[in-house]
Specification:
The structure holds 2 protein chains of 2 kinds. Chain A is α/β, with parallel strands linked by helices. Chain A is built from 9 helices and 12 strands. The longest helix of chain A is centred in the middle third of the chain and has 15 residues. Chain B is α/β, with parallel strands linked by helices. Helices cover about 25% and strands about 35% of the residues of chain B. Classes of the chains: A alpha/beta, B alpha/beta. The structure holds adenosine-5'-diphosphate and magnesium ion. The site of adenosine-5'-diphosphate (ADP) has 12 residues of chain A, from α1.
């Protein structure tokens, strides 16, 4: 039951079918990667699972630990344990990182978190991710560089300790050093109590976050799955051979 | 104490004679000025819809006849106002006015007095400092439509603040005046005159409020700030009259050479508030930051008109007015930047942002530019919108429930102004008021 289970999921945007029967099983304790060309629906999958209203579910199911998450509101899905690290994190003017993360934590518990304990853990996670302390009072993502935004997503993930994480192109916009820091942050969160889904279209990230399984996504569904060597193969040969395989009915 | 009421105290055509009879202490020069103003007041037309300066305003709600000269306060009422005048604790001086009488005072330190700083209620200053007041009291013209109300104010005003800071004197902690209106139908005429001489530095705060929530009151105020060459003036006003009240305020700020002015306005109260803000850049190299935050709800109408007059070169003015509207509230922002031919190298900006939190709220925006110089940077922009869906999704996706997420985003909208206030106590005071008002709504 400790699993994120997506079955035959179909999702429309503006009456256009983007996901057409996607199935994926992510058990806790594992890291899976989804790779696929641009525009294939990777972010659509992430946002639809997070409950975004613009993404209309037309078929299939998605459950987390047996609970139907498609029936939940956006905030309920998050509190149920799903975390989405955004491909394009949103700037929130006037809301400081400290207040934002604190509100997110408070939403998960009866009593408000103790301020001293909170700052202690926040500073520790920031240090771990190489984020300067002065960021605590900066508005969320406002004026951040691409890399700072991505680190800030991982900071939130580290603070909220979700059961299932979807990282949408967390590597884009990062130089190698930043990539290593972010990957290290993610690796520290790997473990029995958590399932992680890494979306990327570069194999590079997977050198640092080594996945248990790799899924190839094309035209709105998973078309091939394998182990980490599949990512290397895609890196080397591109996606066309997979298309041909499908066409040939392999 | 019960004050005897007579019809002559209502703000009719005969009230002025009654006022003069009641205030025989006023000096002759002032009485003359008042007489001329009263005549002017009677002669000027009331605002009407056809006047460009009153466009969009509900002019029907502006009658003053139902109000009367505010009566003196009982000892008990004064005491309770004094107890409520503690919002800013770290000050260099404090005046508390109730119904235009001085009810409490924390005088300047001996050190500041010895340096020549003057911080006096006008009721004393008219007699003690005629040389300053004859020159500066009501010396600025109305530029934004409130001529009639300015004349009304001049005629019936009798108190307020005179703050004079001599050259090279820097005052660290803010000075604060509280202006309270008490009782039903009371009319008050608060006045502020700040004169900061060369290279001086001062922060002044006006706080306007009502002693209860229900009594309809009238406030007709005028504030004037002079920043002398190289002076640094920070001004805050908190308009928090109760929501049954009608208020007018005209703020004129004169910036001389190399001066720095920052004005923060917080508009929370009044049933109908009309604020006019005129920033006059008189000297080269000056810099004015003009900021305002309004939180309107229910049926409030907050009408703000601004003018940035650049009469000297090489100066900068930056205006940011943010309004958050709930229920069926209404705001009007009309802003004009005027750059004179000689005001080359002007940087002048004007921004109005309206956040509509209800489908029935109404935000009107009338931005404008009039530029006669050819080498300037000017911009004006107005936006009106709801809470941003992407921002809301981001917060919800972190598990924050919708009401909390909306509140965070609205407070974030306010922060753009609040975070600019350097004095932490003042910033927190403004923040608390804004949050309070938003919670109640
Ligand atoms: N908000 C949207 N409105 C309309 N079309 C969209 C929207 N978001 C994505 N799409 C379309 O859906 C398809 C999948 O997009 P996306 O999920 O972002 O792909 P990926 O993340 O794999 O690059 C693309 O064709 C894209 O143009
Ligand atoms: Mg994407």
């Amino acid at each position: 039951m400790s699993v994120l289970e997506i079955e035959n999921l179909k999702v429309n945007i503006d009456d256009k079918e983007i996901l057409n029967g996607l199935s994926l099983t992510l058990p806790k304790g594992e890291v899976h990667a989804i790779m696929g060309p641009n525009g294939t629906g990777k972010s659509t999958l992430a946002k639809a699972l997070a409950g975004h209203e613009n993404y209309e579910i037309t078929g299939g199911s998605a459950t987390m630990n047996g609970e139907d998450i498609l029936a939940l509101e956006i905030d309920e899905i998050a509190r149920a344990g799903l975390f989405l690290a955004f491909q394009y994190p949103v700037e929130i003017p006037g809301v400081s990182i400290a207040n934002f993360i604190r509100a997110a934590l408070n939403s998960r518990q009866e009593e408000d978190i103790d301020a001293v304990a909170y700052y202690k853990s926040l500073y520790a996670e920031m240090e771990n991710l190489g984020i300067d302390r002065k960021f605590t009072s900066r508005s969320v993502n406002e004026g951040f560089s691409g890399g700072e935004k991505k680190r800030c997503e991982i900071l939130q993930m580290a603070m909220l300790k979700p059961e299932f994480c979807i990282l949408d192109e967390t590597d884009s916009g990062l130089d190698v050093d930043a990539l290593k820091v972010v990957a290290e942050g993610v690796n520290q969160m790997r473990g029995e109590e958590r399932g992680i889904l890494v979306i990327t279209h570069y194999q590079r990230l997977l050198n640092y976050i080594v996945p248990d399984k790799v899924h190839i996504m094309m035209d709105g569904r998973i078309v091939k799955s394998g182990d980490k060597s599949l990512a290397l193969e895609v890196e080397e040969r591109g996606y066309d051979w997979i298309k041909e395989e499908i066409a040939a009915g392999v | 104490m019960i004050t005897a009421q007579s019809d002559s105290e209502f703000l009719s055509e005969v009230v002025f004679d009654h006022f003069l009879a009641r205030h025989s202490e006023l000096p002759d020069w002032l009485v003359k000025q008042k007489q001329a103003s009263w005549t002017e007041y009677l002669a000027l037309p009331a605002p009407n819809r056809k006047m460009e300066t009153w466009r969009f305003a509900n002019v029907k709600g502006l009658g003053v006849e139902g109000f009367r000269l505010a009566p003196s306060l009982s000892e008990e009422d004064s005491q309770s106002l004094i107890e409520n005048s503690q919002n800013v604790k770290e000050t260099s001086g404090k005046l508390v006015f109730g119904n235009d009488d001085l009810v409490a005072e924390e005088a300047l330190s001996e050190e500041l007095s010895a340096k020549g700083v003057i911080f006096e209620p006008l009721e004393r200053a008219f007699a003690k400092h005629p040389e300053i007041l004859e020159e500066f009291f009501m010396a600025q013209e109305s530029a934004l439509g409130s001529e009639k109300f300015a004349a009304f104010h001049t005629a019936l005003n009798r108190n307020g603040t005179l703050l004079f800071v001599p050259a090279n004197v820097e005052i660290e902690l803010p000075l604060v005046s509280y202006h309270w209106a008490n009782g039903g139908e009371s009319a008050v005429f608060p006045h502020t005159l700040v004169i900061a001489k060369d290279n001086s530095k001062v922060t002044f705060v006006d706080i306007y409020g009502s002693s209860d929530k229900e009594s309809a009151q009238l406030a007709c105020g005028v504030s004037t700030l002079y920043a002398g060459p190289g002076a640094n003036v920070e001004y805050h006003y908190v308009q928090n009259w109760n929501e049954a009240s009608l208020s007018f305020n005209r703020l004129t700020t004169v910036a001389e050479r190399d001066s720095n002015i920052t004005a923060y306005g917080l508009n929370l109260g009044s049933k109908h508030a009309r604020n006019e803000g005129h920033t006059v850049i008189e000297g080269a190299g000056s810099n004015a930051e003009i900021l305002s935050l309004t939180v309107a709800h229910k049926e409030q109408e907050i009408d703000q008109r601004t003018l940035q007059s650049h009469n000297a070169p090489n100066s900068r003015s930056n205006l940011l007015f943010k309004n958050a509207l709930q229920d069926t509230s209404k705001t009007i922002f009309s802003g004009l930047i005027k750059v004179a031919e000689e005001a080359q190298l002007t940087d002048a900006y004007q921004t109005n942002r309206n956040l509509l939190l209800s489908p029935t709220a109404e935000a009107n925006s009338l931005p404008g530019l009039e530029i006669l110089a050819n080498d300037v940077k000017c911009s004006h922009g107005a936006t009106t919108g709801q809470i941003d869906d992407n921002e809301l999704f981001y917060l919800l996706a972190r598990g924050i429930d919708k009401p909390t997420a909306q509140k965070l985003l609205v407070f974030g909208f306010f922060e753009e102004i609040l975070e600019k206030i350097n004095n932490e106590e003042l910033a927190n005071y403004h923040r608390e008021l804004v949050h309070q008002k938003f919670e109640i709504a």
